[in-house]
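Recall that a protein's primary structure is simply its ordered list of amino acids. Everything else, from secondary elements to tertiary packing, is in principle encoded there. The following example makes that idea concrete.
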Amino acid sequence: MTDTVTRESEAPRPDGPPPRRSYAKLAADESREDFSLRYAPHSFRRWSPTMVASTALGGIAYLADFAIGASIVFTYGFTSGLASILTAAAIIFVTGIPIARACAKYGLDMDLVTRGAGFGYFGSTLTSLIYASFTFIFFALEGSIMAQAMHQAVGLPVQIGYLLTTLIVIPIVFRGMGALAKVQAWTQPVWLIGMVLPFLVLAFEAPDAWGAFTSFGGTEGAGAGFSWIGFGLGTGVALSLIAQIGEQADYLRFMPAKTEQNRRRWNLAVLAAGPGWVIIGAAKQLGGAFLAFVALEAVGKTHALEPIAPQIEALKPWLGSVALPAAALFVIVSQVKINVTNAYSGSLSWSNFFSRVTHRHPGRVWYIFLNLAIALTLMEMNMFAALNKLLGFYSNVGIAWIAAVAADLVINKRLGWSPPYIEFKRAYLYAVNPAGFGAMVVASTVSILAFFGVFGRYPEAFSTFIAAGLALVLCPLIAWGTKGRYYLARPNPVNGPGAVVADVTATHECAVCDTAYELPDIADCPVHAGPVCSLCCSLDAECGDACRKAPAGEPLLLPLPTVRPH
């Protein structure tokens, strides 16, 4: 399937204008497409701040936190594990604040923010792959947990369970944000009861268990005391969740405009649904480790690391024979809530990647199947068994990316080395910006070498700290050294100095697809002699980037006629 159809009446001629574009049916249906490669217009942001926040937080119901927390504490002991989990949470929270606010303010997903925050148009292509890998790695992890629950509950072979957990999310993700919001709202009461009940039971039935847990030395001989090596390695595993801010951003881009009337609710919603997810996440990691510790003697180490078994053991004193189906229901609901988000976000990141590489866009929904096929393959390969190593490696790349973006938003923009707004349109960006992209490549390369022990034992343990530190320093340093020249290939007549149009909610008709879009999604194009939407601009393979070749100091100021003001 192709993304474009050339109309017969406007067939391209050697001496004529470029052909018009019409999008494939699925790509043109924004009720499913959810502006996957675009700015989210104000007309589509119809949800309240509270609704957006609750939907975004519904997606963090996953139980991978339980498995990750248990794995860290079992390997490195309680003291080092606790320090690792809290340190990683602090880093994720701090770096997530500016990213969440930028995505909510500008109506952009993580990929589009990355473009304008120091990476450039093609520079952010690599980060789309990093983000896509996050979604399918964690889909596979969450799917494995769901398959384990199905196996425990009804004896379903885990290989068949992997397939079922993959297929079950497709109808929901296919329908987009509206369906996801409903699923998160409907399942929230069941999830809340299932989350709280095991800890309530243990508070009454095993009140001394927490005291014993705090002196737990792990199952690998780490000991109950603090270890710098264990702390560094454990933090690296926990930091693999840093890219979760991208999934939160996929919801936050639908936040309504901030006004004087909703300012307080808007700020609170963005903080809670953006970086705030990690507060719940850290609590879940510690809670999961505690449940696994309590169940360790009864089920053994292997099953204790699988969230379903500790849930059953915790519920048995009160629910008896009902503990198994109750625990299985909780696990399945939790995993559906997160895996619809993983599949949805993965489809967005793959869309962004392939639109730039192939100049085609058949529609977001087709990439759901690519993302799920990779995730299913990982599940069948039993990636759950290599949890710590896989997540520890991934976190080196993920944190270099997120730290570089955060550095640009917090440091470069405030010091004037980066434009004060987020420019995401191809027409105004260099292909690669060395500030963010260069910082990420250098930081992740050095940290990966450290992760594999090239520089010795302590750098190996603290490789993720190396990645974060280098990215935070190099991004501003490169931006300062290049005087910010690689952020904008040419001035934007709307957002740049001397901006000529103020009403960003006014719509303007694209000269290529003849569809009206709000002003932030429009660029002025000399090839088409008029305004073009950001997606038509991205998909144009014949223009030769003519707009970037205007003489220095002479920005193109083509007329942008208002068609349908709001």
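The chain is about 60% helix and 0% strand. Residues 323-358 form the longest helix (36 residues).
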